[in-house]
């Protein structure tokens, strides 16, 4: 390993934990954690040691690297997306046994924190002592801050690999996309973010907080070559019309009703024309599961009717990836314990099945680049 790879390994061992351990809990979903970890590291009870040993094979792994961020600290409607990484991983292990990727682990999440910039030094020192047994440690303590650090050192060490982040609420896409966009700028790549969502996530702040599930897009625009390279698909829940968001922020939007009225092929062709005209090199896909109609996915914090069908979303991904490499992605806002449909566990299973199919496709595309 070179120095950059050594730095990543040191940072990962300090700031991450084994897959499934990102949620600090005693009994809830304990059996699910154990089942997942036994499928990843069979035949061992020393999961932490097995995870650390596995990190040595990262240099020779597939291009797709999975990172779980089990935080819903940046949410604000129905909570529970912190369970997304555990449950989606388990679903992928069950339904996509041949899928190949490298699981780097989970961000160590303090569920009371969001970003270090909101904390005073005394709190940071106390949390560093709890996390790292050293109140002067150089590492951050909040999930967004840790995610950004890990993503930064990851891209520095492995510029040709891609992260697939699992959330968690959508605020997590802020550090993931920020690190990605900075890395691609250094590589001289012009990239677009394909953002599937029922909501614009273009608030400047929410209740005085500038980094949250409803505002993360606003704060990554400056890292794009042009704000129009944020292409949003599936929008339908907004207090303001499409013209406001496009004129105010310069983004590109394709609302859900346009997909229904014009057809998904028309939307695909429009996006491909834009990508071609603006000479885009690579794509990052940020997928909020509530982009899909709530009749298909209701185990999420803000389910919305009249959305995309899973096949429409998949058709978009297939068409775009046929022309442009997808080199990073995330899947957000899966809340397995949240049920708004009245169908209980069936709702969770259906949501996870849809998310797993989309995630499998994205992971495969990242690995193939």
Automatic annotation (TrEMBL):
Domain of life: Bacteria
InterPro entries the record matches: Ureohydrolase (IPR006035), Ureohydrolase_dom_sf (IPR023696)
Keyword Metal-binding: yes
Pfam families: Arginase (PF00491)
PROSITE patterns to which the protein is assigned, alphabetical: ARGINASE_2 (PS51409)
Record keywords, A-Z: Hydrolase, Metal-binding
Entry similarity comment: Belongs to the arginase family.
PANTHER family: ARGINASE/AGMATINASE, GUANIDINO ACID HYDROLASE, MITOCHONDRIAL
Protein name: Arginase family protein
Organism of origin: Thalassotalea fonticola
